[in-house]
Write a structure and sequence with these properties.
single chain, mainly alpha, Arc Repressor Mutant, subunit A, Four Helix Bundle (Hemerythrin (Met), subunit A)
Length: 231
């Protein structure tokens, strides 16, 4: 069993974790084909959160250092063609999801109180398009429109711009973009039923139900993305 000491430097946490593991590969302490400890075990060894381990695993996978076999585990990739190098690839997808979870439920509650009839009709059309494209890559664009329109309906420019920026960041960050490509290949798309609950709460102008529906949606999205690393 691989043994790792706790992380103790000032470098970005996920990069520190990723470079520690990449160092084991470079030194030959672990070899191509070796299975790494589970996400939970790595978090305990390094005394960091499981989301930080996920971000590190994404950086390592995008860099070609490891191979994640969903349902089996995390394995060291063949390093014969490239060195085990990890770069700071920007903000990670679980960081973005965590930020969205802090902001969007309350945003949705505000939107339930303030959404106009015209905005509700626009949201209905977007929701219908999500239904039409459900289970395909086309749904991604409508998902973004759905969430951004809700933020606009909250009638707070700071909130609307923050939510918009988080969606832009998802595509600009190499780390987030790389992981998103991986889970799309696995068929992980926005779930229509969760958006149905959000839409119905807004249609009924119920802030409590809107807050709850958005929180449950983002928690489910996080859990779904995390399935990529589970063995």
């Amino acid at each position: 069993m691989v043994k790792l000491e706790p992380i103790e430097t000032q470098e970005r946490l996920y990069v520190r974790v990723a470079r520690r593991i990449a160092g084991l590969v470079s030194s030959g302490e672990v070899s191509a084909g070796d299975k790494l400890p589970s996400e939970r075990d790595l978090a305990e060894m390094l005394q960091v959160s499981r989301p930080s381990i996920r971000e590190a695993m994404i950086a390592l996978e995008v860099s070609g250092v490891i191979e994640v076999r969903t349902g089996s585990g995390i394995y060291v990739a063949d390093q014969s063609r490239q060195p085990a190098v990890v770069a700071d690839e920007g903000i990670g997808p679980f960081e973005i999801l965590e930020m969205r979870l802090l902001i969007e439920p309350e945003t949705c509650a505000l939107a339930a109180e303030r959404i106009s009839d015209d905005q509700l009709e626009q949201l209905r059309k977007i929701y219908n398009e999500m239904g039409r494209t459900s289970g395909t890559s086309e749904v991604e664009a409508f998902d973004s429109q759905f969430h951004n329109l809700i933020a606009e309906a909250a009638e707070n420019t700071a909130i609307a711009r923050t939510v918009s920026w988080l969606w832009v960041l998802r595509d600009q960050s190499e780390l987030s973009r790389g992981f998103h490509r991986l889970i799309i290949k696995e068929g992980v798309y926005p779930v229509l039923d969760e958006h149905t609950a959000i839409f119905n709460a807004l249609k009924n102008r119920n802030p409590d139900e809107a807050r709850k529906a958005m929180r449950e949606h983002l928690e489910a999205a996080t859990a779904s993305a995390a399935q990529h690393f589970l063995s």
